[in-house]
Amino acid sequence: MKLQNPTHSAPVDAAQRRAVAPVICYPVDDLPAPDLDLYQAARETATKIDEVVVPPRDAKVFQVPAGHFFRITSVEGPQVGDLNLWNLKDLAERFYSGKTRALHGTHLSVSDRIWSSFPNMRPMATVTCDTLDWYGFDEFGGSVHDVIGTRCDPYTHNLLAGGQYHHCCHSNLTRALADHLGCSTDEAEPHIHDVLNVFMCTGFTRDTGQYFMKASPVRPGDYLEFFAEIDLLGALSACPGGDCSTNHSSDAALCHPLLVETFAPDRKALGDWRSPPVNGYSGDHGR
Description:
By secondary structure, the protein is an alpha+beta fold. 16% of the residues lie in helices and 28% in strands. It has helices spanning 14-18, 36-43, 97-104, 154-161, 169-181, 185-188; strands spanning 47-54, 59-64, 69-74, 81-87, 90-94, 113-115, 123-130, 143-146, 196-204, 211-214, 223-228, 232-238, 258-264.
């Protein structure tokens, strides 16, 4: 028997309650701002040292030393990518999408930073260039490079559609990390975490508040570039949804590869720059 939600009448002051102005939860005015001028100057001295091609409906792992740049490019056609990042030396420190969202908003662009998980909570990477920054927010509330979705996964697919689909981004990332670490997928899977949805165009519907996706505006040659604040291990999945215009977690969408390139700046270009320290909280939690 379906439970019925009882009807509640609005209070007499409902309009006033709705009209209360919002307050930003985490004002970031006092956060140390990234030195984009320094990064740009360093980037102009950089040379390419590595590249990884991520096949459609699969994932690959890559490494980026601190003080280097990495670029994710759509090379053949519109394609969304799901990005995980870890501290190269400690996989327990990984991208914290929820806190990144709380600090910077639902979608990332230039000067926004990818923050790591507790207890370290520090910048892992800074967005330094975004060829899709022109898109902004559309009339539906959609924008690109979101940190509101998770990643397509076989568990939700099984729940909603049944079956055993193995090329969801969660499984792609799991296989790629397992291959890199030389371990089983069971051992690798706990390290897979919520992603930055690179190039994905998403938002929330205004009437029902549901997470939506729409055709990505990404074109061949568009890219998102980062400065690595610490030594990074990354994994990128070329989503089975392609440009995510119709569906994901299936073989129906047209998919394309993605390219990850790493660039090393001149050693003197960053001056006395250093990786950010771990978070300064004492960690005693009042005990």
